[in-house]
Amino acid sequence: IGFINGWILVKTKLPSFIVTLATFLMLTGLNLALTRLIGGSVSSPSISKLDGFDSAHAVFASSISIGGVEVKITVFFWIILVAVASWVLLRTKVGNWIFAVGGDANAARAVGVPVTKTKIGLFMAVGFCGWILGMHNLFAFDAVQSGEGVGNEFLYIIAAVIGGCLLTGGYGSAVGGAIGAFIFGMANKGIVYAQWNPDWFKFFLGLMLLLATIVNLIVKRRAELK
């Protein structure tokens, strides 16, 4: 899927937001329709009796005790992925290509950056991360809803913006995106644990988005002045 998104993007020159949203909606409809057609329900049957389930569950959905606290292995996957992404962005030639393509694809191409390969590779990397998340959800609950995540597509974008990633491209970090996701999750769960009216979550989400966007613009302008 990541390859298809990247290929469509580089061939049509359409905005990545439009391409990914279009394929997301198409695949969502296809997934819901086929799951209901084949299984008679939008939920898959339990996979707990499949061969190899215990091994896969240990890899994707087990918990590790640290100081008497049970920590989901998902957290360690999250940390590892952030560390690898940060290393690639900051310490490798590919990271320089990514920032260059995000800032100005034409200028990057002019200095020899493989723009097409870089863009397609990024979409494939995002698809790989999406697969990992899907495996965590599948083996954590032993089943999956075909409509899982529908309606949350803009929330993920907001989390990235809160973490300092500019929608215009060329600026951001893996650590910032992870922090944005962490803040987003804390706000979501914090309102529930504080027993506040959950209707306030949308207000706080919009407020965080606005403040994060303003701060990002200020930081970018100061960096340009230097």
Describe the structure.
The chain has 226 residues and is mainly α. It folds into two domains: 1-145, no CATH class; 151-226, no CATH class. It has ten helices and two strands. The chain has a two-stranded antiparallel sheet with strand order 1-2. Helix 3 (53-60) packs across helix 7 (115-141). It is globular, with a radius of gyration of 20 Å.
**What is the CA-based Rg, rounded?**
20 Å
User: In total, how many beta strands?
Assistant: 2
- Helix and strand sequence: HHHEEHHHHHHH
User: How many separate domains?
Assistant: 2
List the helices and strands and how they pair.
Elements: H1 2-12, H2 16-39, H3 53-60, E1 63-66, E2 69-72, H4 73-91, H5 93-103, H6 105-110, H7 115-141, H8 153-162, H9 174-193, H10 200-225
Short description:
The chain is mainly α.
Label this structure with key terms.
2 strands, 226 residues, two-stranded antiparallel ribbon
